[in-house]
Amino acid sequence: MRTFVRVTLTVLAFVVAALTLPLTLGGVTLNASFENRYAPRTDGVSPQPVPRTHDPAKPTAVVVVGNEGAVVSDTLAPYEVLAASGAFNLYTVAPEARPVTLTGGLDLVPDLSFAGLDRLLGSAAPDVVVVPALPDLGEPTTRPVTDWLKQQSSKGSLVMSVCNGSGVLASAGLLDGRRATAHWIRIDGFDERFPAVDWIRGTRYVDDGNILTTAGILSGIDGALRVTERIAGTDVARKAAEAIGWSHYFPGVSRPMVQNTFEASDTVVGFNTAFRWDKELLGVLLTTGIRELELAAVFDTYGQSLAVETMGVGLDGAPIQSRHGLTFAPRATPTAVADDLDRLIVPGADAATRRAADQYSDLSPVYLHTRPGFPFDAVLEDLVHTTDTATTRWTARTLEYPADHLALEGAAWPWTITLRPFGLAVLGLLAAFGIRALYRRRA
After folding, report:
1. Among 77, 100, 109, 72, which residue's Cα sits nearest to residue 300?
2. Which H helix or E strand runs over 67?
3. Best CA proximity match to 130, nearest among 78, 60, 184, 189
4. Could you tell me if 106 and 141 lie in one domain?
């Protein structure tokens, strides 16, 4: 019996030794991978947005961002749809008037604070409120947003959530007794956490009266087109879809889709987050006039892959205005961070035509949007060439983007990254054997 116990303890000690290094180092990298997605700027810069002309004859739509940030495509994709329709006064709003970090380190300067919107509209509520996924769902920091949403809903706003923004609505009690949907990764958890909601799977959006919820990330485009239909008509919505290059528009209906579930190949994201220690850092050049979807495509595609990190940089470090008037604040110039960057990425068809980054020829700028097509296509094609097929297909499924028309073929799997935890396990075992041998020698 004593021998059995001794052998069992020895085996357990070696198992612990094998797991200690992979779990410790992997855990540190894993935490950093998620924290870096919303890392706030630290320079205290707080530029002012460009004022807009308000047309009282038009309905008003707002896209809400929290003080702790928001998912970049959840925010910018519906914004460009609504802007392209030309049917709305359109603003981004936040609890406070200061820069907000979107996924991947893109700093948005909201047009208005909640108080500023109240001063603009008086006692009226905005006609449309769009709610993206927020990183601090369930935390006290979302309280200003959820309280404000309840007020606007009670005043008659049409509230639309994108992706896990439905969790924000559910936490505010706005979905109790209603049908709703969410991103496929989170919907099962929401089912348990918010049992008063009838969670619907396998659809791009659920239109339930004065609340409309969408599935993952780019399903927000379908939701925003549906909102445009309801307020401005199908013809206006169709023209907006054409303007942004969205070929998946189906007027009047939510297009069914196969409900994604976790697959064996999705384990790639675990290796990328925990053991890809040498992630590329991409400088993303922000240029005046860039489309909001062109920005979202870069920051969200690379960000959702969890294999690449991004930083917004500017030609002179000054804020820029997007095509439809949003203000973004770069964190540096390419020259200032050249030693830290692995590549300089230049999104935007206009920037490619103007060769906006040719002055940084020593950084070999990569112009992504040199060909016609939906902005996410070029970024997914770049991702598959610089990482692997498994990572890119995971990213497309996370974005809930129909990418069957793309030839996403590259290296099948990140084998070097995959071998790292096993190498660490071997090191742990060797250390355990060495300690055991030293103990025996001394005994």
Report:
1. 72
2. none
3. 78
4. yes
Q: Is 160 helix (H, G, I), strand (E, B) or coil?
A: strand
Closest alpha carbon to 71 in 393, 399, 345: 399
Which residue has tokens 């209603």?
A: 178
The answer to the question of residue 270 being in a domain is yes
SS3 103: coil
- Taking the C-alpha atoms of residue 45 and residue 330, their distance in angstroms, rounded to an integer, is 10
180-214 burial: b if 16+ Cβ within 10 Å, else e: bbbbbbbbeebeeebeebebbbebbbbbbeebbbb
Q: How many CB atoms lie within 10 A of CB 147?
A: 12
The per-residue pLDDT of the chain, averaged, comes to 93
Is this structure's pTM higher than 0.85? yes
**Greater confidence, 46 or 336?**
336
- Of the candidates 282, 285, 350, the one whose C-alpha atom is nearest the C-alpha of residue 313 is 285
Domain CATH for 107: 3.40.50.880
Taking a C-beta distance cutoff of 8 angstroms, is the pair 189, 167 a contact? no
Domain count, the chain: 3
**Positions marked catalytic:** 163
416-430 pLDDT, tens per residue?
999 999 888 888 778
**Strand 106-109 relative to strand 327-328: parallel, antiparallel, unpaired?**
antiparallel
CA distance 271 to 223: 33
Question: Are residues 424 and 311 part of one domain?
Answer: no
Query: How does DSSP assign 198-216, residue by residue?
Result: EE--SBSEEEETTEEEESS
What range does the domain containing 24 cover?
2-31+417-442
Do 209 and 349 sit in the same domain of this protein? no
CA 366/CA 357 separation, integer angstroms: 9
Same domain? For 402 and 358 the reply is yes
Are residues 294 and 225 both part of a single domain? no
Q: 109 and 192 in one domain?
A: yes
Query: 3-state class of 419 per DSSP?
Result: helix
Q: How far apart are CA 144 and CA 101, in angstroms?
A: 17
Is residue 74 a part of any domain in this protein? yes
E-state strands within 95-176: 100-102, 106-109, 112-113, 128-131, 158-161
State mean pLDDT over 161-167. 98
Q: Tell me: do 160 and 309 sit in the same domain.
A: no
Let me know if residue 53 belongs to a domain. Answer: no
Are 333 and 239 members of one domain? no
Beta pairing class for 179-180 and 198-199: parallel
